[in-house]
Amino acid sequence: MPKGLDPFQGRLLRAVFISGLVLSALISVPLGVLSVMSFIRSGLYREEDPRTVSWSRSLGEFDALAGAGADPDQLERILNRLEKRAEGVESRLSLLKRRRALSGRGSRFLNAYRDAARKAADDFPYSRPLAALAAAALVHDSPMIGIPAEELRKRILLLEDGASSPLVLAVRILQGDMRNIERARASPRLEALFSGAFPLVSGGMAAEEAEALIVNFAILDILNGDVREAAARIILADGGETIRARSPAFLRFAAEYYYDFGDPLRAAGIFSRLEGENALIREADSLWLAGYHEAAGNIWKALVSPERTADSAVQAASAAPAAPVSGAVRVRSLYNLAAVSDGAEAAAWLERLYAERGAGFTEPAGPGPHTDALRFGIIRYTRLLPLPQALAVLDDAALKTDPFLDLELLRRREELWIPGRVTGETWLLLGRHPGARELYRWAAWYFDHQREYGETSRLVRTAENRGINGPWLSLHRAISFIAEGNLDRAEEALSAVPESVWQAPANLGLIMEARRSPSAALSRYETAVSAMEKSGVNRAEAARLQLRIAGCFGVMGRPEESRRVLEYARDLDPENLTVQMELRRLTGAGRP
Q1: Which residues contact 144 (CB under 8 A, 6 or more apart)?
Q2: First to last CA, the chain
């Protein structure tokens, strides 16, 4: 033992030393564990989260099933299970991508896609991608009926600026913000949306999206009355060789624009670059409007020729056969040829058009330019025939399914029947075509013309019960009230008719005359004259209106002005005997 060291102190030092070793060993174990954990977490060694592995594997299994053509109900059940496990925006986007692909399998899956997009956007209200998907899902393959406007506006609230401007713009257009110029101007941020979307045209946007944006710009320019700016946009996109790279949809829009706004020859040039018979017949229309009548006629004749072997005038010399021309194109071509011909030649084209009636009313289904051409071509054809032969043509069960041809048959029979029978047949006609609005307008005119005002009142009630309305209905209602002597109700009915319909102020003038107020009547008649001049003057109607004005001047003690008006009325309609008699009475002589 060293000198000076107490035995007790030595034992104490040994105990402390041993205790330190033990404590050091005890501490080193958790530190070692922590070091290993830290090493693992440092990234030098990483083990995948089992949840991540399971999610990725589930998506892969779903994609494999979808690629193998699995039952869509099974795929939807898998998506429903995965949706419950989705935790973030990225996982929701992955599921929505797959739901969108499934939405094409039926309306039920499309509705499920919409619901899932809505829920995801509600769960993450500040996610721009989910908001964009929710808005797009609402309008995808939808007629926009039953979609609350407020919900759409809420979805696009986050997307007003930046790369989503085209989507927001499309939604605004679908909502009707550009339905008319006043609404477009009042729409909040519409101009800003266009300004935000426009730079994207030259910023790497897909070609079809850029074209759609140019078209939207051009439409907005047209609504604003700036046709030149619209032309500048189209010309910029339609210049040089770039036109060949444009989509057929854009080329058709450009061609229709030039056709509508005064450059039919350029329209014909663009239509000639489009494939198909519809583009060819529009090319012929454009050439005719541009004054190239022979070229247009050659195209129409080629389209109706039984020996036709090519789809265009340029290809006509080719020996390669072409697909048969559709009934719609044959009908339109025959109608055009008849319209630009005279006499026997026109009758020959119309007779060929009449031969198309069988396939014509079923191809294509529904009304359209082709249906109108067939309908009015047959009417023109029958008016060239003697009455018995015309009645035999029109009294055909297939033709009478068309309301206008059925009406034409009644109008031709009117030449042989007494008015009472025509009235009864008119009601039978309306019963066969209860939804044909134009037949009700004709019937109202006919009843008023025959002074059968009781029938007019009944017709107005029937039309209202069947959901048919319009200014013309209020006008005929007012005429019935005037005939009954109920001037207050007549005036109330006429107040619902715009002054641009000249008959409304004209009938108000009659009411003012009945109330012995010639000054007020004169004001109404002058308004009617102005409206008539804007809508197109019917000289016989205009003469009758001037006769009423002359009567007002006479009552007001202004014979010179009355005489000048009567002379003007005589010039408008020299056959109006009432005007001549009033002029002779006023002057004491007059001309016959």
Answers
A1: 174, 175
A2: 165
Question: How many CA atoms within 13 Å lie on the side-chain side of 577?
Answer: 0
- The 10s digit of each residue's pLDDT in 199-246 is 444 444 556 666 777 777 777 778 777 787 777 777 766 554 455 567
| Tokens found for residue 236 | 């910029």
Sign of CA dihedral 570, 573, 574, 578: negative
Please, which residues have CB within 8 angstroms of residue 429's CB and are 6 or more apart in sequence? 403, 406, 407, 410, 439, 443
**pLDDT confidence tier of residue 297, bands split at 50, 70 and 90:** very high
Angle at 428 between CA 426 and CA 434, to 5 degrees: 95
Buried b / exposed e across 537-572, counting CB within 10 Å, b at 16+? eeeebbbbbbbbbbbbbbbeebeeebbebbbebbeb
Spatial contact of 487 and 510, defined as CB atoms under 8 Å apart: no
Q: Where are the alpha helices (DSSP H) in 317-395?
A: 327-339, 343-354, 357-360, 369-383, 387-394
DSSP structural state of residue 443: H
- 216 neighbors 210 (Cβ within 8 angstroms): no
Residue 527 DSSP class? H
Whether the model pTM is above 0.70 = no
> Cβ-count burial of 330 within 10 angstroms (0-12 exposed, 13-18 middle, 19+ buried)?
buried
CA angle 130, 135, 139 (to 5 degrees): 145
Mean pLDDT of 261-271: 90
**Section 88-98 average pLDDT:** 82
User: What number is the average pLDDT over the span 140-159?
Assistant: 60
- C-alpha dihedral over 189, 192, 197, 198, to 10 degrees? 140
